[in-house]
Design brief:
With 346 residues, this protein is of the alpha/beta class. It has two domains: 59 residues, no CATH class; 238 residues, SGNH hydrolase (Rossmann fold), CATH 3.40.50. Helices cover 36% and strands 9% of the residues. The strands form two sheets. It has a five-stranded parallel sheet. Helix 1 packs antiparallel against helix 2 and helix 6 packs parallel to helix 7. The longest helix has 22 residues. It is globular, with a radius of gyration of 35 Å. The N terminus is likely disordered.
């Protein structure tokens, strides 16, 4: 690098040294021209009075100096800060939702009377401030969603800095022992540790055996990938099933199993945790078993909610978001719409 050269900074400040140096050089040039052409060759009073055309001569000299100044300034690069470029459009964030059938049920059209809360949630956000995309898929566990090429890998490819990813898993993570799960190849080890077992791998992904990890381990892999994209993961505990205490006074909670492990994974990765299981369970306990069963679940169903249940669960998600210190809550509608308790007619 040449001596005296200053590399420009991103905001153009690096050119200031060049500008100052150019101005100093022009000043010195002007003074030298004055010495050569305007200063008398002999000291007064020996020198004769200046000729009457001196003003014209002086004008001609300064014209040369001015031309030199203009030429010198034109050689200096324009400051970066002064360059006229169109400002980049501000990125409108996206809220991606990932999870199982309690988040997005089937084709998301209520054909079986079942709805996931991810269908209702977008209605509670301001579309001018955020885009909400429900990428959940029924039947998935933390493991199968993470490993299936057209699920999490496809979602993470769309995530941009400033986005949010809301995740809820757990309902399908313990359907069978992971070391022998050949039905849907989705079971995980309970917990948030580093334990592993060898178990069968989905033939659609090559078959054979694979190393199977804990539920929390798969959650943490997705959390880390989201953080690496400059986005914010929000870990939800799973919604409660319609299972009650023997006396029917309290809904069974997941605060000692998947709800706890989701919280531990979030805390380990230092990301927000939304206690959805607890928020919904509190509402269920207040309303009582009879009303909850009759209002929020289709007949004979204990896991998947109907429209009214999905609405309550989405409202609990909003309740949890408001408790988090995240800019996401600023994208919520100030006045939520009046969503009916019955699903819209088809």
């Amino acid at each position: 690098m040449r001596r005296g050269w200053r590399k420009p900074l991103a905001d153009g400040r690096g050119w200031e040294g060049g500008k100052l140096g150019g101005r100093l050089a022009l000043f010195l040039l002007q003074k030298r021209l004055e010495e050569l052409f305007l200063t008398p060759s002999c000291p007064p009073p020996a020198c004769p009075p200046p000729a009457r055309r001196a003003p014209a001569r002086r004008w001609w000299i300064f014209s040369i100096a001015a031309a030199c100044a203009v030429a010198a300034l034109s050689l200096l690069p324009a400051p970066l800060a002064a360059q006229t470029t169109a400002p980049a459009a501000e990125h409108k964030p996206t809220l991606f939702i990932i999870g199982d059938s309690t988040v997005k049920n089937g084709a998301d059209n209520g054909s079986n009377g079942q709805w996931g809360w991810g269908h209702i949630l977008p209605m509670l956000f301001d579309p001018a401030k955020i885009t909400v995309v429900n990428d959940a898929l029924g039947g998935t566990s933390s493991r199968s969603f993470f490993e299936t090429p057209n699920l999490f890998p496809k979602v993470i490819a769309k995530v941009q800095p400033g986005d949010f990813v809301l995740m809820q898993f757990g309902h399908n993570d313990n359907t069978r022992p992971p070391e022998s799960d050949t039905l849907r190849y989705r079971s995980t080890i309970g917990g948030n540790g580093e334990e592993t077992v060898e178990g069968p791998k989905d033939p659609k992904q090559g078959g054979g055996n694979e190393t199977i990890h804990t539920f929390g381990w798969y959650e943490r892999q997705m959390i880390a990938a989201i953080k690496a994209k400059g986005a914010t993961p929000i870990v939800c505990s799973l919604i409660p099933r319609d299972n009650w205490s023997p006396d029917g006074s309290k809904i069974n909670r997941a605060d000692k199993s998947y709800g706890l492990w989701a919280q531990q994974a979030a805390e380990q990765e230092k990301v927000p945790f939304l206690p959805l299981n607890t928020l919904i369970a509190d509402h269920y306990d207040k309303e009582g078993k009879a009303k909850v069963v009759a209002t929020y679940f289709p007949k004979g169903e204990s896991t998947h909610t109907n429209w009214a249940g999905a609405k309550l669960n989405a409202e609990c998600v909003v309740e949890g978001i408001k408790q988090l210190d995240l800019p996401l809550k600023n994208a919520l509608l100030a006045t939520p719409p009046a969503i009916p308790n019955d699903a819209p007619a088809k």
